[in-house]
Design a protein that fits this description.
Layout: E1 2-13, E2 16-27, E3 31-35, H1 42-49, E4 57-62, E5 68-71, H2 88-106, H3 109-128, H4 134-144, H5 161-175, E6 179-183, H6 191-202, E7 207-211, H7 215-221, E8 224-229, E9 232-237, H8 240-277, H9 281-308, E10 328-339, E11 343-354, E12 358-362, H10 369-376, E13 383-389, E14 395-398, H11 411-418, H12 423-432, H13 449-461, E15 467-471, H14 479-491, E16 495-499, H15 503-509, E17 512-517, E18 520-524, H16 527-533, H17 558-607, H18 614-647
Parallel strand pairs: 3-7, 3-8, 5-6, 6-7, 12-16, 12-17, 14-15, 15-16
Antiparallel strand pairs: 1-2, 1-4, 8-9, 10-11, 10-13, 17-18
């Protein structure tokens, strides 16, 4: 089933063409990652689909009754005073239903008929929105996104910006639109929450179109990649790894074509010169036209090849201070930290960092990664244990949210003030960090998040630190910038201690992992080893801390102990019944979804012929993939339900 299509969409801002002739369609089962450099128009395209931005040309055609859900990078639909676990519409319906019930108590016979009709409509809408179990489903989604244990009455104003983003994402998931449009959905998620979201998207029966620079996430979710480049969309079937392979083949083909054109151009120039020397003027002019055309084609091939190269180049080596790569520059022994000396965050963490180590701190949000980083930087006291630095070591730090002393100066002035570079040398260095032409004269106050991060890193690296402390350094960088940064950090001769949830970035750069689990941390060789062997742990304020009993006081006699046991068994039975009811509800949903997918696949199979559109085969593969995932979940839940039914008579 087709949900929507775009035809020849174009959009320009201040004479700059952002989108030109964009056409594609989205069908049931599609999971498309929209990628491209920052500023190429990805968010604008989503806003055009949702009607928030009007295109200059072209059309958006949305199928009848299709519901599209859109999650912006900074959603503005969340009101500070709202209840976290309830949507505004459900809360308004609850109020209206209660008011209507109250009016019915005193209404006349004539008024009752009208009120009953209103009550029926309100109740039907409440039921359609899933109002009866909305809070339960919200809690499940929030738990998956790393926000378990939120109080029912907690207002959004009490949550951080990242937590509010996760609430918005949970609401989107729970509302189950036909199409999910997600703009950077993993920005505020830790690795576990990102993995949960990836699993949800893989099993989603509608369609998903998402913007992301998280390559591991794209690899885990996408059935196709749309690259927005030079105002046009290029379609690549498969996940991110498949996209990289296809791009590499295209680049190799372009290189071969450019080499062939160069040879042919040189040959035609020689022929042209021969015609001129023999005074064959008509033939000379004809050949000259051929040479000009070949020269234009070669220039275009070189332009396309240059797009595949990096737009930024980082050189990070601390020149005079490389020394012995095996010397220890930092040693931490038995580091522990507790809030107010009581509520333990982590304990007994020990590790050492050598001169060229790349140590990455990983774990769920709230486990203490940033706290440990601040302890190492000397920004936080109240810890126990020992930290030793090499006496000659110099270090630099880049936080998630960079700041500058003077926001009113230009990027060029900032670099010149923090380094000994001349304006000319500073401009060359800034160009390698993506600041071209007049970009260097932008005031810091108007820079985007990504530009601020790149400027800060550029200034930091001119100080030639021995140890780089990085807190989520890829947060505001697009894919190309991330890859350049990865290559630079891999070649960097100094030590790195970094926090990141970017799995691709970790896998490429890390030489070791400090993995947090069970309120402590230890060294692992790789991220994969950490995930396989670390104990299950949940981060954040609601985790049960060591030394704090879940039961306030021990029972003092057999009767009270027996009573407590009965209460616990009763709560367990209620929980199990609720879980089984939800499981069976999901099984019913899956049965309907599987039936729908099988019908669509059968229709496609019946329509295949020698003249079939290649896109039909691409769609067939996507539907089959989605069906496989749905069937797997259905079989697993059915098996769990049968096991539960077998145990029930004995309880």
């Amino acid at each position: 089933m087709q949900f929507f299509s775009l035809r020849d969409i174009s959009k320009s801002y201040h004479g700059h063409v952002l989108l030109n002739g964009i056409s594609f369609s989205i069908h049931s089962g599609d999971r498309i990652a929209l990628i491209g450099d920052n500023g190429t128009g990805k968010t604008t395209l989503l806003k055009i689909i949702t009607g928030r931005v009007r295109p200059d040309g072209g059309s958006v055609n949305i199928s009848r009754n299709t519901v599209i859900g859109y999650l912006a990078q900074n959603p503005d639909e969340l009101i500070a005073g709202e209840n976290t676990l309830k949507s505004r519409e459900i809360m308004e319906l609850e109020t209206e239903i209660a008011e209507t019930e109250k009016k019915l108590e005193t209404a006349s016979e004539f008024e009752s008929a009208e009120l009953l009709d209103r009550y029926s409509r309100l109740f039907a809408r409440f039921e359609a929105l899933g109002g009866f179990d909305y809070e339960h489903r919200m809690k499940e989604a929030l738990a998956g996104l790393g926000l378990s244990g939120i109080d029912n009455s907690r207002e959004l104003s009490t949550l951080s910006g990242g937590e509010r983003m996760r609430v918005a994402l949970a609401r989107m998931i729970v509302s189950k639109p036909d199409v999910l449009l997600l703009d950077e959905p993993t920005n505020h998620l830790d690795a576990d929450a990102t993995e949960w979201l990836a699993g949800y998207i893989r099993g989603y029966t509608g369609a998903v179109l998402l913007i992301s620079h998280d390559r591991y996430f794209i690899d885990r979710t996408a059935s196709g990649v749309f690259e927005l480049e030079a105002a046009r969309i290029h379609v690549y079937p498969g996940n991110y790894s498949s996209y990289v392979e296809q791009k590499q083949r295209i680049t190799e083909d372009r290189l071969r074509a450019a080499q062939s054109l160069e040879k042919e151009l040189e040959r035609q120039k020689q022929v042209t010169q021969t015609m001129l020397s023999h005074r064959k003027m008509s033939s000379y002019h004809a050949r000259e036209k051929v040479v000009n055309k070949l020269s234009d084609r070669l220039s275009e091939q070189k332009r396309l090849l240059s797009k595949g190269g990096s737009s930024m180049s980082f050189k990070l080596i601390p020149e005079e201070r490389t020394g012995d790569p095996n010397r220890i520059v930092l040693k931490a022994a038995d580091i522990s930290f507790a809030y107010d000396g009581e509520d333990t965050l982590f304990s007994d963490i020990s590790f050492e960092v050598k001169a060229q180590d790349k140590l990455f701190l990983v774990g769920p949000n709230g486990c203490g990664k940033t706290t440990l980083l601040n302890i190492l930087l000397g920004k936080l006291s109240g810890f126990s244990g020992d930290i030793l630095f090499s006496g000659s070591a110099r270090f630099g730090f880049m936080s998630q949210f960079v700041s500058f002393e003077d926001e009113g100066i230009t990027a060029l002035d900032e670099l010149c003030q923090r380094s000994e570079l001349s304006p000319g040398a500073a401009r060359k260095l800034l160009a390698r960090f993506g600041f071209r032409d007049t970009d260097v004269f932008k005031k810091i106050s108007v820079l985007s998040g990504g530009e601020r991060s790149r400027l800060f890193l550029c200034c930091l690296l001119t100080e030639k630190p021995d140890i780089l402390f990085l807190d989520e350094p890829t947060n505001h960088l697009d894919i190309e910038s991330r890859e350049i940064l990865e290559d630079a950090l891999t070649e960097y001769n100094g030590a790195i201690i970094a926090i990141s949830h970017d799995r691709y970035f970790i896998d490429k750069c890390a030489t070791s992992i400090l993995g947090f689990s069970a309120f402590s941390g230890r060294i692992y060789s790789t991220y994969a080893e950490y995930k396989q062997t670390a104990p299950v742990v949940t981060g954040g304020e609601k985790s049960i801390r060591p030394g704090i009993s879940a039961i306030a006081e021990p029972e003092t006699n057999a009767n009270s102990a027996s009573s407590a046991a009965r209460r616990l068994r009763g709560r367990d039975r209620v929980r199990e019944r609720r879980e089984e009811a939800l499981r069976k509800e999901r099984i019913r949903e899956l049965e309907a979804q599987i039936e729908k997918l099988e019908f669509e696949i059968k229709e496609l199979e019946g329509s295949f012929s020698a003249d079939s559109d290649p896109d039909d085969y691409f769609r067939y593969a996507r539907l089959s993939d989605s069906l496989h995932i749905q069937v797997e979940e259905y079989l697993r839940l059915s098996s769990e339900s049968e096991e539960n039914d077998e145990k029930a008579p004995d309880e």
